[in-house]
């Protein structure tokens, strides 16, 4: 099965289709919902036959013509329970005419000589018409109630059957099996796949004829309009019920009528439409859950990282302080071990700091507190925090004296350049120099401060350019021990200042990361040029 384009991909069923088993409600359900065209001609002939039988009986029984009027009235009431409105009206008129012609004096004439007989005949017509109308209304309401009860029971059985399933594919197959057994027919569920084409949901479902598939695609494409969202009967004798989500069709529920059914009555259409809507709701619910699960997982992931990071800050601070005191007091062979402890503590402290910074970026809680800063001071602070990590790499700082002050949060920018310097040190061989440079440029009338960190190492592989700044993403040649958060944090902090960071390869070899910050001196800074 092709994954739906409108919905999240649904897992295909493995192996043989579940609908190979016995259908739910098979046998009695198919016979119960069998549809036949009611014969109006038969009803009219039956009504006339009953009236004729009553007339023959009236001729044979020793009853007065007025007593026979009540017999005809009772006959009309009984017929109204069994036949429709038109045949009932036919029974009223035929009974009145035959009663007048055959029994009311003068017999075998439609004339009425006695005023009392005229009143009786008029009352008979009026009472018979009212009683027949009320009887047919009662009959129609009773049948409508029975139909609604059957539909409610069918939907309740479907809900109970689906509630016992463990997955969406099993629930849909159960719903299709239930429909097959209830209607005594075969159903097919088509969902939009790759490219927008409709494909059977279950791999074990027989393919529809090409004409039926094209008809289903037309129904699905135009299902958004209210005038064309109802079920449609195809030339091949299959009913197509579109599945809608947000006013857009994402599938079609196809029902093939049995050969013994000459048409699908309105109550069957309503039931099938309800079943189709239930299947559509199942799929839509799974789609919403699939969208909700990643968000909940990310929220839980961020909360866990934030909690763990904060819990680690205190013991790390204690370890760092104890390591500094031991290094100042201890000499000899144990000094090397103390130095290792201090280096590992600093490394773990940087990892925890990166985790905290990443959770602040993800939660939107990062609010820079900008002030006027000197780029030289920020670079020197970042350099001092990485003394041990940069010991094997010559650092060349080339910052022009004309470089203006920047409007930024100094601790955040120090974190940016610490990560860039550490990234250069970790991904270049020992002895490879690292360079820091800066300049101011004007583009489209707007000034920007460009500060870059470059090295002369192996450079950036082409396949990493699209994923370089993603969180928890590390290159295939990266050293063990990192989390893949450094460059992601660099970009996040730069964006928080209204800037950005780009990466490229140096023409002479190595990688270059350039941080771009807006020059806002004309907006909120001193009037004179620095």
Describe this structure in words.
With 530 residues, the chain is of the alpha+beta class. The protein folds into four domains: 40-157, no CATH class; 168-291, Beta-Lactamase (2-Layer Sandwich); 293-362, Helix Hairpins; 366-524, Heat Shock Protein 90. It is 52% helix and 14% strand. A five-stranded antiparallel sheet has the order 2-1-5-4-3, sandwiched between helices. It has a five-stranded mixed sheet with strand order 7-9-10-12-11. Strand 3 and strand 4 form a beta hairpin. The longest helix has 64 residues, at 266-329. The protein is rod-shaped and about 140 Å long. Residues 1-37 and 525-530 have low confidence and may be disordered.
Judging from the principal axes of the Cα atoms, what is the shape?
rod-shaped
**Residue windows where pLDDT falls under 50 for at least 5 positions:** 1-37, 525-530
- Gyration radius, rounded: 43 Å
What is the domain tally?
4
- Beta fraction: 5-15%
Helix-strand category: alpha+beta
Predict the CATH topology of the largest domain: Heat Shock Protein 90
Name of the CATH class of the largest domain: Alpha Beta
Using the 3D structure, state the CATH architecture of the largest domain. 2-Layer Sandwich
Kindly, what is the distance between the CA atoms of the first and last residues, rounded to a whole number of angstroms? Answer: 66 Å
For the residues shown, what is the average pLDDT? Answer: 74
How many helices?
13
H/E topology pattern: HHHHHHEEHEEEHHEHEEHEEHEEH
Give helix % range: 40-55%
**Main β-sheet, spatial strand arrangement:** 2-1-5-4-3
CATH superfamily descriptor of the largest domain: Histidine kinase-like ATPase, C-terminal domain
Largest sheet: 5 strands, antiparallel
Number of strands: 12
């Amino acid at each position: 099965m092709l994954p739906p384009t409108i919905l999240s991909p649904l897992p295909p069923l493995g192996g043989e289709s579940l609908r190979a088993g016995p259908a739910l409600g098979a046998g009695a359900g198919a016979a119960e919902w069998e549809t036949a065209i009611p014969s109006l001609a038969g009803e009219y002939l039956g009504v006339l036959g009953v009236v004729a039988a009553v007339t023959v009986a009236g001729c044979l029984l020793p009853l007065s013509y007025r007593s026979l009027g009540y017999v005809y009235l009772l006959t009309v009431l009984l017929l109204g329970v069994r036949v429709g409105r038109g045949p009932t009206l036919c029974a009223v008129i035929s009974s009145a005419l035959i009663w007048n012609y055959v029994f009311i004096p003068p017999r075998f004439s439609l004339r009425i000589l006695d005023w009392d007989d005229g009143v009786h005949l008029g009352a008979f017509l009026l009472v018979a018409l009212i009683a027949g109308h009320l009887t047919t209304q009662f009959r129609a309401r009773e049948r409508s109630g029975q139909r609604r009860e059957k539909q409610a029971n069918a939907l309740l059985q479907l809900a109970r059957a689906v509630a016992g399933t463990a997955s969406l594919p099993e629930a849909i197959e159960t719903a299709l099996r239930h429909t097959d057994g209830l209607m005594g027919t075969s159903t097919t569920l088509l969902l939009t796949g790759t490219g927008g084409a409709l494909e059977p949901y279950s791999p074990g479902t027989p393919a529809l004829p090409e004409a039926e598939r094209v008809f289903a695609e037309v129904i699905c494409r135009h299902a958004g309009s209210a005038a064309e969202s109802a079920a449609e009967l195809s030339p091949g004798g299959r009913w197509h019920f579109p599945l809608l989500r947000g006013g857009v069709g994402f599938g079609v529920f196809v029902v093939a009528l049995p050969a013994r059914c000459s048409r699908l009555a309105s109550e069957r259409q309503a039931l099938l439409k309800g079943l189709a809507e239930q299947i559509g709701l199942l799929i839509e619910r799974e789609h919403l859950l699939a969208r909700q699960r990643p968000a909940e997982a990310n929220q839980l992931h961020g909360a866990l990282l934030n909690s763990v990071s904060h819990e680690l800050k205190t013991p790390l601070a204690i370890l760092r302080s104890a390591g500094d005191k031991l290094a100042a007091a201890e000499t000899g062979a144990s000094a090397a071990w103390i130095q290792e402890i201090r280096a590992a503590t600093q490394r773990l402290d940087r990892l925890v700091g990166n985790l905290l910074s990443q959770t602040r970026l993800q939660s939107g809680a990062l609010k820079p507190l900008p002030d006027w800063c000197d780029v030289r001071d920020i670079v020197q602070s970042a350099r001092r925090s990485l003394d041990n990590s940069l010991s094997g790499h010559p650092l060349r700082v080339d910052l022009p004296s004309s470089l203006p002050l920047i409007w930024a949060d100094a601790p955040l920018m120090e974190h940016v350049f610490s990560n860039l310097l550490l990234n250069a040190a970790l991904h270049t061989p020992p002895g490879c120099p690292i360079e820091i440079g800066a300049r101011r440029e004007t583009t489209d009338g707007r000034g920007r401060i460009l500060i870059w960190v470059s090295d002369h190492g192996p450079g950036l592989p082409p396949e990493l350019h699209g994923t370089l700044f993603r969180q928890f993403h590390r290159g295939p040649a990266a050293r063990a021990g990192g989390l893949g958060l450094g460059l992601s944090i660099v970009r996040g902090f730069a964006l928080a200042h209204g800037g950005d960071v780009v990466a490229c390869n140096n023409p002479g070899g190595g990688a270059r990361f350039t941080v771009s910050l807006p020059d806002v001196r004309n907006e909120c800074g001193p009037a004179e040029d620095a």
